[in-house]
Specification:
By secondary structure, the chain is of the alpha+beta class. It has three helices and nine strands, in the order βαββαββαββββ. The strands form two sheets. A five-stranded antiparallel sheet has the order 2-6-5-4-7, with helices on one face. A hairpin with a 2-residue loop joins β8 and β9. The protein is globular and about 45 Å long.
Length: 175
């Protein structure tokens, strides 16, 4: 979201941001698969589920996004029980086999509100997942399901940090 004289200084997204215990459980449950994939692992503190990627924003655009929540779908739980690699992007991921209806409602209502405020909606089908590694090879692996209690939605900004990226949670809203 930029005007003719504005610079896009922010890269932001809405996410489900796990607590430390859930992040540790994800890391433990997927350690062997991450190693077997040969990919570049994502640091434990950056594990999350993106709900809506906004891309490059001006400060004004970020303020517009910040004004959208809350989206009152109520708390829910994700069971992260499937692991795989998308061959086209070489991303090793952990996902729910059956995403709960509340997650679909959250994603749809969030995008509806964003589009009403001038954001461009996603053209692809939403595939909720936690990115575990990049440049990964396909792996034959199973995973002990990880329970992720979801109680809030977070607005997150990403900052380049060498070859990686640093995330900062800007704000959180109860579901």
């Amino acid at each position: 979201m930029t005007g003719p004289d504005e610079r896009a200084d922010h890269r932001a997204f809405f996410a489900l941001w796990p607590d430390d215990a859930t992040r540790s459980a994800i890391s433990r449950a997927t350690r062997d698969a991450v190693r077997a994939s040969g990919g570049r692992p994502i640091a434990k503190e950056r594990l999350h589920v993106t709900v809506a990627f906004l891309g490059e924003l001006t400060t004004a655009g970020l303020d517009v996004a910040r004004a959208v929540p809350p989206i009152p779908v109520g708390p829910f739980e994700l069971s992260l029980d499937a692991i795989g690699v998308w061959p086209e992007s070489k991303i090793l991921w952990l996902a729910p086999t059956e995403p709960p209806p509340a997650l679909g409602k959250l994603e749809a209502e969030l995008w509806d509100a964003l589009v009403e405020r001038g954001f461009r909606g996603e053209d692809r089908i939403y595939r909720p997942h936690v990115t575990l590694a990049r440049r990964a090879r396909p792996v034959e692996a199973s995973v002990e399901p990880v329970r992720f209690p979801v109680r809030e939605l977070a607005l997150v900004e990403s900052f380049p940090d060498g070859r990686n990226v640093h995330y900062e949670v800007l704000e959180r809203w109860a579901l």
